[in-house]
Design brief:
Elements lengths: L2 H20 L6 H9 L6 E5 L5 H8 L3 E6 L2 H10 L4 E4 L12 E7 L7 H14 E12 L4 E5 L9 E5 L3 H10 L2 E13 L3 E12 L2
Parallel strand pairs: 1-2, 1-4, 2-3, 4-5
Antiparallel strand pairs: 5-9, 6-7, 8-9
The structure holds S-adenosylmethionine.
S-adenosylmethionine (SAM) binds next to α1 and β2.
């Protein structure tokens, strides 16, 4: 099965369980605050691969305008219900369909981990296209090596599979520069993940040139 289809179908199956475990997660508050500090009040933010909308709720509660996109209708259904102040659309981060220079900031937490390595630069170029000049990009990915298809840990039946793409810091920095973003900062951090223990993340903040 095509990777994108596999990811979409599995997220449709586990959407409710994912929301249960992650909606109230405060793990990324430090990164959320840092991102908002670099945006003017009321800026328009794209939540790219928004899942059930927990980041969108954080941003809208602080007065920012948010559009969330995701390929999983299961995730989008939950996000629409739980975050009425944001707008949610079904779209692929590889080809979002938004006009050039639409967003002041783009937040992409744990979505590039489901894109094949061969397509990651294409996604970054697409995100750059829809950012306004001087716009801000946040990327959060899992630290690790290679690409793999594994049993989905959130599916209690153990039947569904998920595709993961893991990165190292130099690889992410190289991709950000290859897409012509100006790198502001990148860091590796270990974070608690509900019921899975800990995961190691790479966080990047970058700017589209003006
Ligand atoms: C691990 S969840 C992350 C959700 C949320 N950003 C978070 O950090 O909790 C990955 C999300 O990315 C979405 N996704 C994966 N590939 C995508 C793609 N090509 N385009 C849009 N969304 C995608 C999935 O459907 C899923 O909702």
């Amino acid at each position: 099965m095509e990777i994108r289809k596999l990811v979409e179908e599995t997220y449709d199956i586990i959407a409710a369980e994912y929301a249960k475990r992650h909606f109230a997660e405060i793990t990324f508050n430090e990164q959320r605050e840092m991102f908002l500090k670099m945006l003017a009040p009321g800026s328009l933010i794209l939540d790219a691969g928004c899942g059930p909308g927990q980041d969108a709720v954080f941003f809208t509660e602080r007065g920012y305008r948010v559009i969330g996109i995701d390929i999983s209708e299961g995730m989008l259904g939950i996000a629409r219900e739980r975050v009425p102040k944001a707008e949610f659309r079904r779209a692929d981060i590889l080809a979002t369909g938004f006009p050039d220079k639409t967003f002041d900031g783009i937040w992409a937490l744990r979505s590039l981990i489901h894109v094949e390595k061969k397509d990651v630069l294409r996604v970054l170029n697409e995100l750059k296209r829809i950012l306004r000049p001087g716009g801000l990009l946040f990327v959060g990915v899992l630290a690790g090596k290679g690409e793999r298809i594994v049993p989905e840990p959130y599916d209690p039946t153990g039947k569904s599979k998920m595709f993961f793409n893991m990165f190292n810091k130099a690889e992410v920095e190289h991709l950000i520069k290859a897409a012509n973003f100006g790198l502001i900062r990148s860091e590796v951090k270990t974070k608690p993940v509900p019921e899975l223990g800990q995961e190691c993340y790479i966080f990047v903040l970058a700017r589209k040139s003006s």
